[in-house]
Amino acid sequence: MKYTKPVVLKPGHVMGAKCGSGPCGRPCDKKAG
Amino acid sequence: MRFIIMYYKINTNIMYRLYDNYGYITDNTMFGYRYMDDKTIYPGEEYVSESGAVMLNALSKAPKHIDDIVKYLLTIFVDVDYAELKNDTIEFFNYFVEKGFLSSGNTFDECQKSIAYDEKQMIDNPMPILSGDCSNTTVCEFDYLRSLHIEVANECNERCIHCYIPHEFKTKMINPTLFYRLVEEAREMNMINITISGGEPLMHKDFIGFLKKCRELDMSVNVLSNLTLLTDEIATEMKANPLLSVQTSIYSMTPSIHDSITKVKGSFERTKAALLKLKDLGIPLQISCPIMKQNLDTFTDVIAFGKEYGIAVTVDYVIFASYDHSNCNLANRLSLEEVGQAFDKQQSEQYIDALQELAKEKLALNGDDSICTICQYYICVSAEGKAFPCIGWQEKIVGDLNKQSLKEVCEHSKEIKELKMIKRSDFPNCVECENRGYCTVCMMSNSNESKNNDPFEINDYHCKVAALIHNKVNLYQADK
Fold it and tell me: Has this prediction a pTM greater than 0.80?
C-alpha cells in the first residue's frame, strides 16, 4: 500500500434529524440534554 | 527530560473501526449515556486518512510495543523506511494520547495501568501536529451504518398503557442463533452500537449471553429495560462492559401513578431499586419519561430525582401510536392544553435555551436534506427477525434476516433505497413552516397514526404542538 503521512480528516456534516430526535422517547436511544 | 514512549493501547471506552478508505475512532459517550455531574472532557470522535487508519488498526486494547507495531506496518506500506514510519507513527499516536483516545507507557505495565483519560486532565485541543488532508478523502458521518437495534423479546412483564407494541403481539423471543449471527455480521460491517430492547429484554433466557457476545466483539451496547428482572448476575455482566449503558422508564415518583401506567403493582419500587443498584456500579444511565395524562402532575418529580442522582431524564410531550393503527394507546396522549401545562412546568432559562439551540439546527435544514437518518445511521430487527427502518415502525418491513444477511438487506433492499431518497422537500407543508424549529417530522409516527399506513400523512395535532411550543418560547423571550 502506498504510504502517505497520516492525517485527521474533517467529516462532511449530514443535515437532518438523527434517529432519536423524533417523538420516540422509548425506542430510540437518544441522549438527554 | 522527555521519555521515549514504547507502548500504546486503545483506551477501554474507545472504539475504533477501519472502513474502506478511512478510520473512525470514538468514545462511547457518542453512543451511550453519561452522568450529568460528569465533568470529564471526552475526546469525542475523529476520522483519519487511510494511512492513519492502518496505523490505528495495528493497536488493540492491550499494550503493544512500538517496534512491533512498526514492523507490522512495514508489511503493509511499501515505500517508506523504518525510521520515518516509526517517527510518523509515534507523532500520530501521541496526538490521540493527548486527545484521550489512546494511552501510552514506557513499559507494558505502565501502559496497561496508564491512568484512564477520564481520571486525568485531558488537553482539550492538543497542538495540531497534523494538518491538511493531502489524501483528498471525502468522509461523511453516515457513509456506514453505525447502530443495530435488536428487539430481543417483544414479550413483556408490564402492560404500559402508552406502549407502541400492541399487547396481543407480545409473544415472541428472538432465536439466540439469529441474535449471535446478527451481532457478528454487524461487527463485520463495522457497526459500533447495538441497542437491545423489548418488550422486556431481560425476559430472554439468553440475555446474559447476548451481553457477553457484544462485549467480546467490542460493541457499544444500550439496553432499554424496565429493570424489574435485574439480577446480580446480569448487573455483573453489565458492569463488565465499559461500553454499556442502560435506559429505563420511570413515569412518576409516586408509586401508584407509575404502577397505574405499567399496570403492574410494585413495578415502581423494583425499577427504582434496580436503577440505583446500577448507579452504585457506575453504569451510565438515562431515564425516559414520556408524559401522559396520568403523570402530567408528577413527571417533574422524575426530573428532580434524576438531578439528585445525576441521571439525565428525557421527557416527551407526545407519545406515538401503536403500530397496529388502532390508535388505542393515544387515549392517554396529552391534549394541546395539557402539552401547554407540561411545558410550563418545565420552563426555565436553561430549557428555553436548549430548545432554541435545537431550533437553530432545524431551521438550517433545507429541502434537499434527509427527513431523518433511518437506514443511514441505524436499522432495527424485530424478535421475529424482520428488519425495519425504525423500531416503532414494524409494518415497514425492509428485509427478512431469517433468509438474508444484514449486509444483503442494508445494501440491496428496495425499500431502504426508497427510504434513503426521501427528502424534506417531500413534505412541502413542513419545509418552510415557521414552526419547523420546534417540530420533528417522523415518518414512523405519521404512518402509525394514518389509517392508510401513509408516512406522508401528518396529523394536524403535531403541527399544533409545534406552534404551541414555538409561541411559548417567543413569549418567554418577550417577557425577559
Answer: yes
